[in-house]
Structure formats: structure tokens, C-alpha cells
Amino acid sequence: MSTEKRIWIPAFYWIGVAMALACFGFVLAGSTELVWRFEHRGFPLSWALAGASILAFLGAEFCHSAFSLRSDAEDGSSQPSPELAAAESES
User: Fold this and answer.
1) For residue 19, what are the contacts with CB-CB under 8 A and spacing of at least 6?
2) 46-86 pLDDT, tens digit each
3) Which of 41, 60, 66, 72 could make an SS bond with 12 (beta carbons 3.0 to 4.6 A apart)?
């Protein structure tokens, strides 16, 4: 996988961290007059930030697993496993 595609892993991670911190901030500041308007509606802003945080963490995990699967496939295709080489030499 190219470096440009691997950069999304830490980007999604840090977006998730920022959204989680913002969510906690909105929950803690929910009793103030400024934030109260956004927190006491049908769908609170802290919930939206928490959902965005979860999606960002899932995106980071998906990118990481896709990168791991591709790197494992590339490593396995270039060199046979020791068990396979031993089985071929016995035949």
C-alpha cells in the first residue's frame, strides 16, 4: 500500500480522538447557557460527536486491517512457507 493511503490510518485515529474530546467537552459544558441550546434538542450535539468519533475509529481500524492484509499477502507470495518448502523437497 502506498504512503498516501497509509496516511489515513493516523488521520482517522486523531480525528476520532478530537471528536471524543469534543464530545466530553460538550457533555461537561452542557449546563452552560451557550452549550445548553445544542445539548437539549432532539438529537444532542454530544451524541453526534460521539457517533463521528466511533466512525473515525472504525475507519482507522478498517484501513489498518486492509493494509495488514495486503502486506501479509505480498510477503507470502514472494517466499513460500518453510512447511511448504519441506514438503516439496520430500516429494
Assistant:
1) 49, 50, 52, 53, 56
2) 899 999 999 999 998 888 776 665 555 555 555 656 666 66
3) 60
